[in-house]
Amino acid sequence: MCKKKSSKSALHEVEGIKSPSSVSDNSIINIKLKRSEQPSENVFIEKILAGDISYLSRAITLIESTNPKHQEKANVIIEQCLPFANKLVRIGITGVPGVGKSTFIEVFGKYFTEKGKKVAVLAIDPSSSINKGSIMGDKTRMEKLVKDSNAYVRPSPSGESLGGVAQKTRETIILCEAAGFDVILIETVGVGQSEIAVHSMVDFFLLLKLAGAGDELQGIKRGIIEMADAIVINKADQDNVKKANLAKAEFSRALHLYPLKESNWQPQVTTCSAFFNEKIDAVYKIIADYLSLTKSNGYFEKRRNEQNSYWLLETINQQLKNNFYNKPLVKETLKNYLKDIQKLKTTPFNAAKELLKLA
Ligand code: GDP
């Protein structure tokens, strides 16, 4: 595959949309916003509702900005867009690096755009918060999709905690929905917490796996299997077809051992080849079946309501934590207590009790 040096971000934006080279670089954002006259909230809302991608992109930049004025403006835009959201399907896609996520998202995204649907691709990449880069590095990802006028690919905001990134992604979803996208694909790397964050904001959670990695049953984390609505064994092509089918049978057997989900959905297993664009329709069919079941039995709506409650509480928790840890007295006292517990002068529990009195 062709490789091209590019931005640090895991994903590239739709061609033609000017965006900062790194969304964490606030100086660039500020200069850009200052230079071009900042439109009013109403203009933003009107343009987003009309499906204007460049305004959508600018509004997402406001969401990602750390400037309180930008955040205030973003909040007004989000609130006004909210009644127009909630119509599209949100699909989460996870899997370890190398399993073929970007290859899969590219063909899967194209599958929708070829049907005349509009697709947005967002990412939650915890590595970009830690390293201000991405473990996916310099690869040019989803080249075809970024050139597709019915697709919008937005890189993961970097330089933020996972909680911060997740909240911004939730807000970005609302704007994408208001802008008339039919499907949102949210990608994350298969490393722990980020999967929980993605799971809590999608309707359908898809786990990509490889056959013959020696971990068919034992190596995969139980939590992820429990979250998955479908397991898709990728790279089922060439010499790998037999192994992929065996893995499919094993995963299916394993999944049947789990109790039926609250949605009444029996998670499905299938194989596909993202690279050769084979059996992508089988994945689509599973998702369509899931949606038809959960929309008719009320689970779809229930889950979205639960997710909204979860995010309300999560945002409060996040805010309380930030307020607490940002207090100068807490910072100073915490430092002292950390030394004290190392010297066994006090217990962590006692230190926590004393610190919380400063809240
Ligand atoms: P990611 O790190 O999960 O996003 O994985 P990529 O999409 O970058 O894919 C990693 C490598 O696997 C690349 O070299 C792809 O060309 C290759 N790959 C992805 N999907 C398939 C597939 O279905 N079959 C085969 N044979 N290779 C694939």
Structure explained in plain terms:
The chain has 359 residues and is α/β, with parallel strands linked by helices. It folds into three domains: 38-83, Single alpha-helices involved in coiled-coils or other helix-helix interfaces (Up-down Bundle), CATH 1.20.5; 85-297, Rossmann fold (3-Layer(aba) Sandwich); 312-356, no CATH class. The chain contains 15 helices and seven strands. α10 links the parallel β5 (204-210) and β6 (230-234). α2 (41-49) packs across α4, α3 packs across α4 and α3 (53-64) packs antiparallel against α8. It starts with 25 loop residues before the first helix and ends with a helix. The model is unreliable at 1-31 and 132-139 (pLDDT under 50). The chain binds guanosine-5'-diphosphate.
Keywords:
Single alpha-helices involved in coiled-coils or other helix-helix interfaces, single chain, alpha/beta, binds guanosine-5'-diphosphate, 359 residues, 51% helix, 7 strands, disordered N terminus, Rossmann fold, 15 helices
Poorly predicted segments: 1-31, 132-139
Percent helix range: 40-55%
Adjacency order of strands in the biggest sheet: 3-2-4-1-5-6-7
The CATH homologous superfamily of the largest domain is named: P-loop containing nucleotide triphosphate hydrolases
What's the architecture of the largest domain, going by CATH? 3-Layer(aba) Sandwich
Please report the number of helical segments.
Answer: 15
Query: Can you count the beta strands?
Result: 7
Q: Do you know the CATH topology of the largest domain?
A: Rossmann fold
Mean pLDDT across the residues is: 83
Report the principal-axis shape: globular
